[in-house]
Amino acid sequence: MTERNRLVVCASHSPGMERDTEHVFGSEFRAGLADARALITSFDPDFTILFGGDHRRAFRHVVPTFGVATSATILPEGGHDEGTLNVPADVAMDLAVHLLDSRFDIAVCRDVSLDHAFAQPLRDLTGDLGRYPVIPVPINCATGPLPAAARVLEFGEAVGRFLDTLDARVLVIGTGGLSHSPPSLELDAYDISDEERRRVISEGAAAARTKIKPQWDKAFLDALATWDGAELVSLTDDARAQAGVGANEVRTWLAAGAAGGGTPLDALVYQPVEEWITGMGLAVSR
């Protein structure tokens, strides 16, 4: 399989963007999403590998470092109904076996219920949850201890070696980040109710708007543009201290870039959106 048959797209996500139903904020980022969606439509993938994190919704009591979902649903959230993902189970299982053979003790996830970390990029980048078959690949980005960035790169490379064996056009998505610090993740608790989660988010929203770090975001995007592995590892391992607890999600970008062959990823857009409490970025492979 050639690199031309692999398209990598990494994008921030934010529940705030979905609550902004009038599209008042983030116009530059939304325009970037439209450009990326056009690239994906032209590429017309056979299926998608989606590296995503979890906001302690799917994984609370048992938290896998890395996983592969062989079947999955999407939680009802942000005004959207529950959905079912079209997961090519045979390919997903082959990927799981390959990763185990590559000495990654991944979790095989069946009928797992995923949140906006997976749903939002599918809707924004492809237009619909079911537009293309998709294999969700969860990476723990929320509940410590987290995987080291170097190990995440190795994981992505292992996924890439599996994709090398396939005669297929594959869209590889990494989603999360950039700098942000959601109040619900700053609270290191796995068993809070949805009502308590909403209260924590509401009370912490004003402070969260001040925690975007454009300088760190730019440094990360610059490192992607040259695929500087050492710098990406350094920035990611120090992400929480420098750019907020939500910045840990850039592990999914590292995995996606590595799975795509470690080629540079160029920023299509970057816009810090205080109302969404996030430095919103989007980068694609050349």
Automatic annotation (TrEMBL):
Enzyme class: oxidoreductase
Domain Extradiol ring-cleavage dioxygenase class III enzyme subunit B: 9-279
Example of a GO MF term: ferrous iron binding
Xref: Gene3D superfamilies: LigB-like (3.40.830.10)
UniProt keyword terms in alphabetical order: Dioxygenase, Oxidoreductase
Stored SUPFAM superfamilies: LigB-like
EC number(s) recorded for this UniProt protein: 1.13.11.16
Protein name (Swiss-Prot/TrEMBL): 2,3-dihydroxyphenylpropionate/2, 3-dihydroxicinnamic acid 1,2-dioxygenase
Organism for this UniProt entry: Gordonia insulae
